[in-house]
Amino acid sequence: MAIIVWIAIVPLIFTIMPFFKPRLIAIGLNAVLTDLLLTTVLVILMVYVAQPILMRLFRNWLHK
Q1: Is residue 25 part of a domain?
Q2: Which end of the chain is more exposed for a tag (fewer CB within 10 A), N or C?
Q3: Mean pLDDT over residues 39-61, rounded?
Q4: Helix or strand or coil: residue 50?
Q5: pLDDT tens-digit profile of 12-34?
Q6: What is this structure's pTM?
Q7: Of the ranges 17-21, 43-47, 60-64, which one carries the lowest mean pLDDT score?
Q8: d(Cα 10, Cα 46) in Å, to the nearest integer?
């Protein structure tokens, strides 16, 4: 499961954080609030989008 979580979260972190963090800071949002907001979005995307997809893809491997 840890590998599946890692496979789900790393691409999300490397795509969402660099794209949105500078934009949110540029509009005046505090850096800590920006991190909290983006982390919340990342967790939601991971739990409800990425992880279910990966669980289906790796279903056979996980049930061995």
Answers
A1: yes
A2: C
A3: 93
A4: helix
A5: 999 999 999 999 999 999 999 99
A6: 0.79
A7: 60-64
A8: 10
Q: What is the pLDDT of residue 64?
A: 75
Instruction: Count helices and strands (H / E) in the chain.
Output: 4, 0
64 within some domain: no
Residue 16 counted as domain residue? yes
Question: What span, in angstroms and rounded, lies between the C-alpha atoms of 44 and 23?
Answer: 20
Measured CA distances, 34 to 37, 50, 51, 64 (Å): 5, 22, 24, 40
Phi, psi of 37 (to 5 degrees): -65, -50
Distances (CA, A) of 55 to 30, 46, 59: 35, 11, 6
* 10 touches 44 (CB < 8 A): no
Number of domains in the chain: 1
